[in-house]
């Protein structure tokens, strides 16, 4: 056991040398030009990737799009097209630790990611936004709204995770344990997990599997896997569900009714799995906590409404924005 622990630590020490601090996924072509913001986090130079897509006929409004745990800015392309067609400026960051941004070995927190995002908006001279946040982005969007209420005009949460406190029923895993799981990932394992996002799997959904699996070919995949492990713990250890009642911005909750996502679900028994992640009920419980909340329930829809049924998602979004 001591030898094994020493080998792991030695391996990690090599992985996180300064030459690997800016590991990033570059294999995927994003739908719009990608720019980079330089940051210094815990004395480490990092870069935050983002798309800033401006409309031909601006209406003066900006939407900030926040991605989920197993995604990056790429999967917002249809939504960005709709937003810009309707006059909205779209700001689409890859959070530090994801996509084309750096994957540093740091203490990840929703507070830090929110502060990074605020710095990006300040740099771009943007004072007010509507926040559109999916999955893990819902946790970040909630934290951002609580930290910077003066900036957020409206909040839209699309099948957010964190509607329940996972650490109260999911067994704890150390970063090293989660790292080993992340390191063993394959295209097939990513695909199998993403199949749980949809009631019926379609071949075109493999595009998002391809984007996620592009990291597997990166020479810095070990660094990426370690940041994936740390951000899993961020979700596990930093719930926001106890603070929804503090959100003052008008909030729209869009919930695909077939979603059964639970972070760490594979660590639960079948009986335990059936007791959690029931989004039809979680949506109703959550919307009542917001000071000004509206719930849109999408029947027959899973974890990613804007991918599975973009027309219905964009109809709900447009009604709320207008």
TrEMBL record:
Signal in keyword set: yes
Name listed for the protein in its UniProt record: Alpha/beta fold hydrolase
GO molecular function: hydrolase activity
Signal peptide (residue range): 1-23
Source organism superkingdom: Bacteria
Keywords: Hydrolase, Signal
Boundaries of every AB hydrolase-1 domain copy: 62-203
């Amino acid at each position: 056991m001591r030898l094994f622990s020493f080998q792991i630590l030695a391996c990690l020490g090599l992985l996180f040398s300064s030459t690997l601090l800016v590991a990033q996924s570059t294999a995927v072509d994003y739908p719009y030009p990608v720019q980079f913001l330089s940051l210094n986090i815990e004395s480490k130079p990092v870069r935050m990737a983002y798309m800033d897509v401006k409309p031909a006929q601006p209406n003066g409004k900006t939407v900030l799009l926040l991605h989920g745990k197993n995604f990056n800015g790429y999967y917002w392309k249809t939504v960005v097209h709709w937003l810009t067609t309707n006059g909205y400026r779209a700001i689409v960051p890859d959070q530090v630790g994801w996509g084309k941004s750096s994957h540093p070995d740091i203490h990840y927190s929703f507070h830090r990611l929110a502060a990074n995002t605020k710095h990006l908006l300040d740099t771009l001279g943007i004072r007010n936004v509507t926040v559109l946040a999916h999955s893990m982005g819902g946790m970040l969007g909630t934290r951002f709204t609580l930290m910077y209420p003066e900036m957020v005009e409206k909040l839209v949460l699309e099948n957010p995770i964190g509607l329940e406190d996972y650490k109260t029923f999911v067994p704890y895993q150390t970063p090293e344990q989660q790292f080993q799981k992340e390191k063993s990932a394959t295209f097939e394992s990513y695909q199998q997990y993403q199949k749980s996002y949809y009631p019926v799997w379609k071949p075109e959904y493999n595009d998002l599997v391809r984007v996620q699996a592009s990291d597997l070919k990166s020479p810095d995949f070990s660094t990426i896997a370690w940041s994936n492990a740390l951000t899993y713990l961020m979700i596990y250890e930093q719930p926001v569900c106890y603070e929804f009642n503090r959100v003052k911005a008008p909030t729209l909750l869009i919930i695909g009714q077939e979603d059964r996502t639970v972070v760490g679900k594979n660590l639960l028994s079948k009986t335990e799995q059936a007791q959690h992640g029931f989004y039809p009920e979680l949506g109703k419980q959550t919307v009542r906590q917001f000071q000004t909340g509206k719930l849109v329930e999408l029947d027959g829809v899973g974890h990613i409404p804007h991918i599975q049924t973009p027309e219905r998602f964009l109809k709900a979004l447009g009604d709320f924005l207008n």
